[in-house]
Amino acid sequence: MKYSSSKENYIKAIFHLQQDEDVVSTNALAKALSTRPASVTDMLKKLKSQKLLQYQPYKGVKLTAEGNVIALQIIRKHRLWEYFLVEKLGFGWEEVHEIAEELEHISSKKLIDRLDIFLGNPKTDPHGDPIPDSQGRMPLIRQICLLELPENIQADVISVSNQSTAMLELLRHNHIAIGTRLEVRRRFAFDHSLEIRMPSQPFFTISEQLAANIYVAFEADSK
């Protein structure tokens, strides 16, 4: 069944908000979608009538199993299109989110499955977020925040939590991207900034705020 772009945006927003809170409030959803709570309530009633979510006024909202499947399909399309735009068309990773927001509403499953095969079945998008497979299964990615990385241990950047244009431009300025290998050489007590080392690069310092949004591949028994 094909759903409107507006309904798909609601379903995807609820899915993302549910990663932090099992039940999503109307106000949180209105804020995420930059709309009025009254408009949210109207849409939630429509989606409830289609059995895509559970909703009770003043008690919040939660996707049903069917709604969850649709959300994963939308996310799959969004992240595959981001990968295509960066890897095949040469867009910067800070440029692709809004374009993918439009492309994710293309409904052809055959097109998306062929796009996935054409791209070599990537597991993550250009920002390191996992791409659901055609069955809606999300790859498990082991990662920790750069702030938690022990000193003098090399690790590869695998995802970025804040994907705003300003954040991605700052990362690009520091030559940090998905796959960049780095290590923490020193932590400064005054402002909790980090001295970073990358292969064949001079040491440099990044703020705690920036480091908090960088995630690296690391397991506790790594040497």
What CATH architecture of the domain at 144-216 do you see?
Roll
CATH topology of the domain at 144-216: SH3 type barrels
Order of helical and strand elements: HHHEEHHHEEHEEEHE
Average pLDDT rating: 92
Strand order of the largest sheet: 3-8-4-5-6-7
Largest β sheet strand count, sense and barrel closure: 6 strands, antiparallel
CA(first)-CA(last) distance: 50 Å
Descriptive notes:
- The chain is of the alpha+beta class.
- Among the domains are: 5-63, Orthogonal Bundle (Arc Repressor Mutant, subunit A); 144-216, Roll (SH3 type barrels).
- 39% of the residues lie in helices and 15% in strands.
- It has 8 helices and 8 strands; from the N terminus they run αααββαααββαβββαβ.
- It has helices spanning 5-18, 26-33, 37-49, 65-87, 97-103, 109-118, 165-173, 208-211; strands at residues 53-56, 60-63, 144-145, 155-160, 181-187, 194-197, 204-206, 214-216.
- It has a 6-stranded antiparallel beta sheet. A two-stranded antiparallel ribbon has the order 1-2.
- A hairpin with a 3-residue loop joins β1 (53-56) and β2.
- α1 packs across α4 (65-87) and α4 packs across α5 (97-103).
- The mean pLDDT is 92.
